[in-house]
Amino acid sequence: MTGTTSAAITKDRARQAMTRFVAAWEQGDLAAVDELFAEDVVYHAPPFPDMGRAELREFIAAFRTGFSGMHVQVQEDLVDGTTSVHRWTVEAVLSGTTDLLPGVEPTGNATTAQGNHVLHWSGDRVSEAWHFGDWLGWLTKAGALPPMPGTGA
Asked: What pLDDT score does 7 carry?
């Protein structure tokens, strides 16, 4: 789904969109998903299945039921034509249960991770998104997974 023929996205628009998307994660403002993503968007977040807008709203809501106090800091925005890349750090606390982590009880542990979003734009909306984050580190620090041998964690 890459390789659109739309006009280039501006860096200001890409930053504004990422700021708006962060609000979905931090405050649960899921209207941002419909505002920013095309109706036929494909949102990739390995190891999770690909998602459309409805599934992405459900994913964010489920994530927020397990993790509270979420704060996302975007460190860098890069734009090239119809693609933008956003590097971020996120922190939260595993304070509840979520269907995303069946059988995992709240630990009260704070956790952090780094990652990035690669967004492919079609006009003023995102037509494809790639969400890459340190899921293993995130879950280990949260206490949902045991520490890996040799990490000193």
From this structure: 84
User: Taking a C-beta distance cutoff of 8 angstroms, is the pair 120, 17 a contact?
Assistant: no
In words, the CATH class of domain 11-142 is alpha beta
- Beta strands (DSSP E) in the chain are 37-45, 48-51, 67-80, 83-94, 110-122, 125-133
Query: What are the tens digits of pLDDT across the range 54-110?
Result: 999 999 999 999 999 999 999 999 999 999 999 999 999 999 999 999 999 999 999
The 3-state DSSP class for residue 55 equals helix
Q: Residue 89 is encoded by which pair of tokens?
A: 């750090």
Q: At 16, which amino acid appears?
A: Q
Average pLDDT over residues 28-32: 97
**DSSP code for 109:** -
Q: Compute the chain's Rg from CA coordinates.
A: 16
pTM of the predicted protein model = 0.90
Parse the chain into domains and list their residue ranges: 11-142
Mean pLDDT of 120-126: 96
Task: Please check whether residue 41 is in contact with residue 61, taking contact to mean a CB–CB distance below 8 angstroms.
Answer: no
